[in-house]
Amino acid sequence: MGILVTALASAAMAAPAAAVEAPVNVPLQGLEPVIPMDAPTVSTAAPLPMPGAPTGFHPGRAGSLPDIGLPTVPLDTDMPESVVAAPLPEVIEGSELGEALLTTPRSKMAATTPGALVGNPLTQPRADRGGMPGFTSPKAGVIAPAVTGALDSQLGLAQPTA
Predict the structure, then answer these.
(1) pTM for the full predicted model
(2) Above 60 in pLDDT, residue 109?
(3) Nearest alpha-carbon partner for 108 in 44, 151, 54
């Protein structure tokens, strides 16, 4: 049993960490009888965000002990490439204009989950109180979630394929 566990653990460590995503193709062929052109195609993928280590507790304000809080958790993922292609209708008989393309290349995205913060009701020990801490009213707050990254969308025309 120990050999099997060791083999599985070494295989898991040897495998590279690849971005996990599920391909998504939106079926729009049912629109073709309704619209006077070929149906557009939409293809993308659903990313699976990978959680990181919690960021830890946040430092207190000046003159007080560290605040008590619920740490935020960073999430990291690659946004997959997405392509929306809509064939252009034939305006003049015999002329094919191609298709309109909206693409977004693969890009890196990072996010953090919301966190909570409760201020400590005690201050730093004070000399005028014989080394005893002072009291303050506790303050509560929410650490806002954050998303960073850049999507570089491109809109253009693709020539018809022969």
Answers:
(1) 0.51
(2) yes
(3) 151
